[in-house]
């Protein structure tokens, strides 16, 4: 279960169903549920609901982009467990305005990403609603049990690592909301990252095969919020070096022009859909070299896992900071 | 994929993904998708979206009833394939009015049916929305491949059989919409059947084990519409005897008082969530005796499967009728 819902409701459901979950199954509490499949393999299953005016604004994202993104965020959950996507299910409620051309373009965007990774849509529900557009995707993946990565496996001393850059999608959202999406190249690059995020499919599957990678999850609500999930599930603390956050040149450029704080966007912004994981310290050098050879991209160490009870301690060049950062919540008040 | 969506959209998606569906998988077109699980077993997966003012009216169904019903309609799909439910996933979008007590009662209703059949909720998404309540359930079941029942297995000469009575839920909806739900016992019984339908879990699983049962599906949109799915998938026609439809005493009583047509409610009304299946003629007598011993309820033969190209021919006591019946579509214009 993605932890973007009301924490009280999720905790209450987890407690209600705790005794019903069969042995070997993982229920509420990770990116995906885990079901034993055969002796060696498990299925991972995730589901996400996107509602109009809460997760997206119809006049700010094209139906093609929204179809692509609806699938991307679910494939991201699957691959953050180290699993390969197998199939998806799509439910869409449409109002009259969206019944014709809109849904065709939406389906084209969904298909574009489906076909790129050869993940078939196997079913769903298309229905009408007088209350605008709602989308629900369920994605299923398969993983060798030895390659399954949970949020609960971080160990004190592990390095905290991220793929790609952070904060681009959050900056893209800020740009869109201020109507500057067509200004120039860096603005367009950031809005594209928000509208059509690239899920780390191959990277997640590959990191799954590495035993030195301990805990892993995707970054959907900003690491200030997401990292706390790993800490809670693993019963550990963390130290984060905010001056080591990987920031794209576009983010730095736009933040300078707009006088935005790139560190806050990188830590507290949502929807990066890159990967956050922890790595045994002694094996990190080899891992990052092999990763670079394979993906031609660097990894970034942003901190370390510490002992329980510390929460997140934030450091910058000047040393320990006397403040905290919180993560992203979808714009429910719009 | 449940066929209550726009037929054109479903046909277009089925065609887009046709070549991507791996061998041994069943995609869009039955109550559930089918995924090979082990050599002998398959998983069946279904998903359904319920939207406010289209599938339910907030002031006409209690949150407890809606939670129960949201799960019931999905378990009904699973069991109509002959499968046993394994687990479910629940996404709910809530507005501010539903954020507190409403969702707790909804979750209690969902839990009530989950615990009755020991089907754990393993994940989902709880999110807020300014546009009212939307619910999406994904249900997963498991079935021995020999017991899997598809819509495509009806054979000419098969008897067409239903469990339970037909039309009660549709009458219940009519009663609710006319504000008469508290009038007297038969009215309350019919509205209860609409608000908290009992899915045929044990019956579906048991019928799955019987080789003389050929095609099977659940009745969600009225048999006038649902039976056409079996005919299209099996490339057959059908003859239906409208005077053999099983009607409850409550339905007959209320229809007499209100001057409603019980045959039309039984054929065209939706949401019965009983089972519609076809049986090899020579083995029907034994099947219905064994069924009665097991469930203390009769089965009802309502017609026969005929050769292709005939569509549905409707008969009553006077012989062949010169008319057609259509099924149920959710009340989208409310």
What does the model show?
The structure is a homodimer of 334-residue chains. By secondary structure, chain A is an alpha+beta fold. Helix content of chain A is 34%, strand content 24%. Chain A contains ten helices and twelve strands. Chain A has helices at 7-17, 63-79, 101-116, 168-177, 185-195, 201-208, 223-234, 249-258, 262-268, 284-295, and strands at 33-36, 41-51, 84-94, 121-128, 134-144, 159-162, 213-218, 237-241, 275-279, 300-306, 312-316, 319-320. The first copy, chain A, has a seven-stranded mixed β-sheet with strand order 7-9-6-10-8-11-12, with helices on both faces. Chain A has a five-stranded mixed β-sheet with strand order 1-2-5-3-4, covered by helices on one side. In chain A, α2 (63-79) runs parallel beside α6 and α4 (168-177) packs across α5. The model of chain A has no long low-confidence stretch (mean pLDDT 92). The interface between A and B is large, with 69 and 69 residues.
């Amino acid at each position: 279960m993605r932890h973007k819902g009301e924490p009280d409701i999720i905790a209450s459901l987890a407690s209600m169903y705790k005794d019903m979950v069969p042995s070997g199954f993982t229920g509420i509490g990770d990116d995906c549920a885990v079901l034993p499949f055969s002796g060696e393999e498990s299925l991972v299953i995730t589901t996400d609901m996107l509602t109009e005016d809460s997760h997206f604004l119809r006049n700010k994202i094209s139906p093609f982009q929204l179809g692509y993104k609806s699938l991307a965020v679910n494939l991201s959950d699957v691959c953050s467990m180290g699993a390969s996507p197998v199939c998806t299910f799509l439910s869409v409620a449409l109002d009259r305005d969206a019944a014709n051309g809109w849904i065709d373009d939406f389906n084209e965007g969904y298909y574009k990403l489906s076909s790129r990774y050869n993940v078939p849509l196997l079913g769903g529900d298309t229905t009408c609603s007088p209350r605008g557009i709602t989308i629900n995707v369920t994605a299923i993946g398969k993983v060798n049990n030895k390659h399954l990565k949970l949020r609960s496996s971080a160990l004190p001393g592990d390095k905290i690592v991220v793929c790609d850059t952070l904060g681009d999608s959050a900056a893209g959202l800020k740009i869109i909301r201020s109507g500057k999406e067509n200004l120039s190249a860096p603005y367009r690059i950031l809005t594209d990252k928000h509208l059509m995020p690239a899920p780390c499919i191959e990277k997640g599957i590959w990191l799954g095969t590495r035993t030195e990678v301990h805990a892993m999850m995707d970054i959907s609500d900003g690491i200030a919020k997401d990292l706390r999930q790993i800490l809670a599930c693993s019963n550990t603390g963390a130290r984060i070096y905010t001056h080591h956050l990987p920031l794209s040149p576009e983010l730095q450029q736009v933040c300078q022009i707009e006088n935005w704080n790139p560190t806050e966007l990188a830590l507290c912004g949502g929807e990066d859909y890159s990967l956050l994981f922890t790595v045994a310290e002694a094996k990190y050098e080899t891992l990052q070299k092999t990763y670079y050879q394979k993906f031609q991209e660097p990894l970034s160490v942003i901190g370390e896992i510490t002992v329980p009870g510390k929460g997140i301690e934030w450091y910058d060049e000047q040393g320990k900071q006397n403040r905290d950062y919180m993560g992203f919540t979808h714009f429910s008040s719009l």
